[in-house]
Design a protein that fits this description.
alpha/beta, about 10% strand, two-stranded antiparallel ribbon, single chain
């Protein structure tokens, strides 16, 4: 290329605003987004060949709504008041009581790509959409970081969010759930809301950003129940600005437009409705707006200190007068109960059902460190530098980080909200630490004396050492730390990539392991039920597997992860922990015999070699590990179940201690006579013996043999599984048919 051509290219680049620095930033951003996308799509290696599946359990619920919208129209679940009778037999599940943002987003985009001629099945599309939207979130946080501290902060924030374990897990292939529109709406809101607060821009531009923030807020509210968090965070932020005497009229206008328009739009959304505007968490939003009106009045009128005090007292009195009737009516307690459980996590320990859900638990501090890694040092540094420079944006970031951390350590699931705050503050911490070293490297020698030149050279050497040291500290965050999942070594996968590297849950047979190939036991069982059973056949299974059975297995279930009926889950738990006689009595009395024909258990057997051969040992990752929760949940309903006649003398319990005790030497569980007679023990042991019998005597069972009275094994998916000679984990999904004829005959003789 000639010199004239080179000058022309440079001139054209300048007109477009392109220079060497912007090229580097764009290249780095593209690389980070590519990393974010690639890590999230890694589980596809277990899905090919064949259909790509969704991850975990709840995404299948969202998929079923999306599928209904694609077939019947976007608003059809709400206008049709769709009751899904394949779930929560016999009453069914009201699907119109669902947040619409995610399924509507999936349905609209799916119809768009189908119109363009892209031929892809809906489940695969939904699985991929999680990856795309998760990557988009990384792009959004880049722009937020750029506004807060420049391009470098934006790039580091995007990198941290791209590889944040809590967010990566909830935005990897197949995780088609509410966190996706939630985090997307959260980041869009923060970006637009903070930009609307910029007093250096025109009012017109500020209003445009306020409208954008309102639309993002409405999308967040329509997508995730955690939207109350950002509403009250924004209200707290604006209130603190008023307290710090940073009020101006622009603040009143922006806050009013954002909150007013956002809530008005959200109130039009199906399922949300205008009742949302009267819920308790909205009260602070309205209260802060009143504070802004008072601040506007005080700014333009001279008011004595005495009158200001009267105004404050009057406002407090008005709040008390408004809240007292609500408190006495019980409105506050009923509406705010779920939020109190987050604010006061110790209250959740009293509820066995809530305590049984892993993502609702309070994470241990060790788990918090595993989540944050060595970058926690930079997070703390970022807080320090942000506090040193308390601009309006930095005040918001401090509040975001502090509240996000509190809610994250209160409930494991909410670490996804903390991830963006952590990414931004850690990025600011790194850049703030690098700045002095970079400044020294850029210094040009003005001194002419030899001593000064030598001093400058030494300072530059120290700067290089400091920069290298920071990156060495940061390196383990993305490169080292091999992990284990469920006791199975993952091959030294760095901790940050492990969440994305895990296969979809159903492709790993519901086990938290990284297998060399797809584990098809659950997929085979769901294929069996969809081809051999009727849609109206009720399959009793622990509530974890309800969505898989109803959506993929095309049968009817008693309960699933929606947990809409705690009493039914208690009944379900009691069925497994009762004797066969009592369990069938409960089923027959409560649900009838006509459609309730099958019961299912899921076991994870570890086959290990000994001197006497191979033994199958219950590993604790299936129902053989979940039965304690069944005992606690049903035990919490002891009084009700006893009064109904389903618990009686000699067969009652309040928790797992009635069924045995832990062996102090071996660490295993020693079943009592009552435990050996439970349905769950019998069905699990029978499935284990069925597997053992099909290994030609190579494997022996570690549990006691059992005899079933009223259950007949019809299919044991995994019983024919080959195992490695050094031992292996073998999932078993066993389906039993209830022998109602034998049960009724036994009762007639009595």
């Amino acid at each position: 290329m000639s010199n004239d051509q080179t000058r022309n290219v440079k001139s054209f680049g300048k007109r477009l605003g392109i220079n060497r620095s912007s090229v580097l930033v764009i290249s780095a951003l593209i690389l980070i987004l590519l990393v974010a996308f690639t890590v999230r799509i890694l589980p596809m290696r277990w899905e090919i060949p064949g259909q790509i599946h969704l991850n975990e359990y709840d995404p299948y619920y969202q998929y079923s709504i999306t599928d209904y919208m694609v077939k019947n129209g976007l608003f059809s679940p709400y206008t049709d008041h769709w009751i899904n009778y394949q779930q929560w037999y016999p009453n069914g599940l009201d699907m119109s009581q669902s947040l619409p943002a995610l399924p509507m987003t999936g349905a609209v985009l799916y119809q768009a790509v189908s119109f363009l001629g892209v031929n892809v099945d809906l489940m695969t599309f939904c699985a991929m959409l999680a990856v795309v939207l998760g990557t988009l979130c990384c792009l959004l946080i880049y722009f937020i970081g750029k506004d807060l501290g420049g391009h470098a902060v934006g790039l580091f924030a995007a990198l941290f969010l791209a590889l944040a374990p809590s967010f990566l897990q909830r935005s990897s292939l197949g995780f088609f759930d509410t966190e996706i529109p939630g985090i997307l709406g959260l980041l869009l809101f923060i970006l637009m809301f903070l930009r609307s607060m910029n007093t250096k821009q025109s009012l017109y531009k500020s209003l445009i950003y306020s409208v954008g923030a309102a639309l993002a807020l409405a999308y967040f509210i329509a997508g995730w129940g955690a939207a109350y968090y950002i509403l009250d965070l924004a209200a707290l932020f604006v209130f603190i600005l008023v307290v710090l005497k940073r009020y101006d009229r622009r603040l009143l206008i922006n806050y009013g437009v954002t909150m007013g328009l956002g809530l008005l739009i959200a109130a039009q959304v199906p399922y949300i409705g205008f009742s949302y505007l009267t819920s308790v968490p909205i009260l602070p939003v309205a209260g802060v707006f009143v504070v802004l009106l008072v601040a506007e009045f005080l700014q333009h009128y001279t008011v004595s200190a005495k009158n200001k005090m009267y105004i404050v007292i009057g406002m407090v009195a008005a709040v008390v007068v408004a809240l007292v009737p609500l408190a006495y009516s019980g409105y506050l307690s009923s509406t705010a109960g779920k939020f109190v459980n987050v604010l006061l996590p110790t209250l959740r320990g009293n509820n066995a059902l809530i305590a049984s859900v892993a993502e609702h638990r309070v994470p241990a501090w060790g788990n918090i460190y595993v989540e944050l890694g060595i970058a926690i040092l930079f997070f703390i540094t970022g807080l320090y530098f942000t506090l040193k420079n308390p601009t309006n944006r930095n005040i918001f970031l401090i509040l975001f980080g502090a509240t996000g951390l509190y809610f994250g350590v209160s409930m494991a699931r909410l670490l996804a909200i903390f991830a963006p705050a952590f990414a931004l503050l850690a990025a600011i911490g790194i850049i703030s630490m690098l700045k002095p070293f970079m400044s020294m490297l850029k210094e040009t020698p003005n001194a002419t004396t030899k001593a000064k030149r030598k001093l400058l050279r030494v300072s530059k050497e120290y700067s290089i050492i400091g920069i290298v040291l920071i990156f060495v500290i940061l390196m383990p965050q993305f490169v080292f730390n091999p992990i284990q999942k469920g006791g199975i070594e993952t091959g030294g996968i760095p901790r940050q990539y492990a969440s994305g590297y895990m296969p979809t849950s159903i492709s790993a047979a519901g086990l938290p392991v990284v297998p060399p190939n797809q584990m098809p036991q659950w997929l085979n069982m769901l294929n069996y039920t969809s081809t051999h059973l009727h849609t109206t056949d009720v399959v009793i299974a622990w509530w974890d597997y309800g969505y898989w059975l109803s959506v993929m297995g095309n049968v009817t279930t008693l309960a699933d992860n929606a947990t809409v009926d705690a009493e039914q889950i208690e009944n379900l738990a009691a069925m497994y922990m009762s004797t066969e006689e009592d369990a069938l009595n409960l089923i027959s009395t409560t649900y009838g015999q006509k459609n309730v024909q099958y019961i299912l258990v899921f076991a994870a057997e570890f086959v290990f070699p000994t001197e006497d051969g191979y033994y199958a040992y219950p590993y604790g990752l299936g129902d053989e590990g979940k039965w304690m929760q069944m005992a606690r949940i049903s035990g919490s309903a002891n009084e009700r179940l006893t009064k109904a006649g389903f618990m009686h003398s000699g067969n009652t319990w309040t928790n797992e201690t009635a069924f045995g005790s832990s062996d102090q030497e071996s660490g295993g569980w020693q079943w009592s006579e009552q435990g050996i007679n439970t349905v769950v023990y019998k069905l699990l042991s029978n499935a284990e013996y069925d597997f053992v019998s099909k290994t030609n005597g190579i494997v022996n069972a570690t549990s006691m043999p059992v005899e079933l009275q009223y259950f007949k094994l019809v299919y044991n998916s995994g019983a024919e599984t080959n195992f490695g000679r050094s031992g292996d984990l073998v999932p078993l999904v066993a389906l039993y048919k209830i022998d109602w004829a034998a049960y009724n005959a036994a009762h007639q003789k009595r």
